[in-house]
Structures
1.
Amino acid sequence: MEDELIKEKYKQLLSKLYHIKNKYQELDKAFDDLKVSVKENLVVDEKTVVDGSFNNIKSTVDSLENELVNSIMPNVSNRM
């Protein structure tokens, strides 16, 4: 009986992780929209003033999403 409760908790956790994954995808789309808007409005000498910052943020978010999808979610899934 206890094993079934643990499996159910892992299923709930996995469901929440999928929800987080979907939020990462929404964040990615919103980030792309923001970047386009900034590029259209904050250009100095034909360069966006904050390109380096955008690249750092994008890299960090992508890294976190990859860890979620390739490490955390499979680990939780294997425990069910």
2.
Amino acid sequence: MVRLPTRNLFDALMILPLTYARAMPDHDVERALADCFEAAVLTHLGAAPNGREEHDGPPPRLRVDFTYSTPAPGAALEISDIAWRLRRAANSARDRLEDRLNDVARDEELGEWEASLTATDQVRKLEPLIAGLMQSGEEIDTHELENEAIEAIHANDQTTYRALTDRVRQLNALGLTRLWKEPGDDHGFTVGLFMSRLLPAHDLGNGLADRIDAKSEVLREARQDQPGRVTHLLVRVTDGRVSKRDLETPPPLLPDSIDYLWVILRILLNDEARGLWIRRGDAAWSEFAEQIGPLPETPG
């Protein structure tokens, strides 16, 4: 059973490119996502919604994206994306951190350094950590530390194993995966920070919770317009990937205005499109994959 959390998401990783995307998909993408939604509903709920009508307008029009007339009493579907918000904030934080570390490198003639970061909200804690490592000349690679931890456990060296795993856990929480010094004669004093395109999944959880909060009233309006309408929120992780290994955690709580939540994302290793869904009150996610065809990766 695949599960996802709410605001405190699992420690899965999501890959995000560094180009910006629009806040919402264009109408063609919305229609493709609605097709996918309808196929998934048919398979998993037993009756595909029919009689699709597009809305998404200012009052007196409904703000919800789509309504369906059958099966009675009908349904409403709202579509949203989240990754673009997370990506924009992460890039901005990275740029500010890079500027400050460049000042440190030049002032103290520390040479040329490069770092690989995850998108993180821990920038204030990352700055002294990276500056201190540069000043000491220490390079960091979390993958190497993990390998050393494996060797320590094989050697039955519990003390070293715990120290290394604690260090990796700390670095991952802060968002630093690798720091290395470029070879040379130290004539240049610069720092390059590269977003490794790995996003801590708690940020995805915050984004998902934000979409639930933002769209709750829109779907409530659709239900008030037609009492009894079943309401659905579909959230697509744009340009994103998650680690299949780390999808074990509880789903978010849905307000009474949202009956079903559907999430479309892609798996890290094989780029496989996957879907997760819950009905309000469910304690675990269900999966759908077979209905997801090729969709535009970035909103139009």
3.
Amino acid sequence: MQLVARKKQPPISAGDKAVIGALLREVRRGAGYRSAETAAAAPRCPASRQTIYAYERGALVPSLVQFLELVEFYVLGQTPAPATGRKPEADLRALGIAAVARSLTLPAYHVTQAQDLIARMQPKLGRGA
């Protein structure tokens, strides 16, 4: 068995980092969490205050799984007190859907590359195949 060196991945662009951070911040605020601290203090929050801040500032980029866990927590998790400015349920769900859909189009998560590869690998169908 021959070992092949792992190909170094290109760094995630500053633009992608900013978009991911903004998406997480908007969903957090829409869920009624005014700060990363209040979100992290909520039961079953999947990230620490420092991690949430780092994601939102673009200092760290969450994996796709971590991104999805945070969005799920904000949209489907326990709600803070009603006076905190939580969006109406339908609006918050739509915001969560939009955040996930947008994140899947970013080069940082390689989903569009995977879809392109799938398209290129499709077998030719029909009589001449």
4.
Amino acid sequence: MQNRAKPKLENIQRLEKLYKYLNYEVSSSVLYIGSWFIPIFIPLLILAAIVFTPFMLFVLYKENKKGWIIFFVVTTIIPIILLTFLYPILLMLGLIPFYFFCFILRMEAKGWITEMRARNDLVLHKIRKENEGQDLEDWMVMR
């Protein structure tokens, strides 16, 4: 009897949800441009960024993407804090690095999802190969 570890499928639901929300965040950058002409959008954009940031940081932490968390703090949080204390009139410019970060993260998250799906397909292929000839009824179909 062999003592091998059973292959494990990776959970990609958090990343898929993050990617979906990043699509909304990146598309709301159009509202940011419009907020220069219609200032009513500014509080909505700030509120959306404040509400989305904890979820984004949680997913990055759970996926062990510490470099991305540090990059977010350096490119977004520190400039916003500096703008708040030094030039509060320019606080609206603090959203520019946030949307830039969301845009880059969205592109990278798509790659992470693709890689995780490929690894899951490989694990499923290995399981099927090990169980060839056996009658298995309950297979989970992966996208």
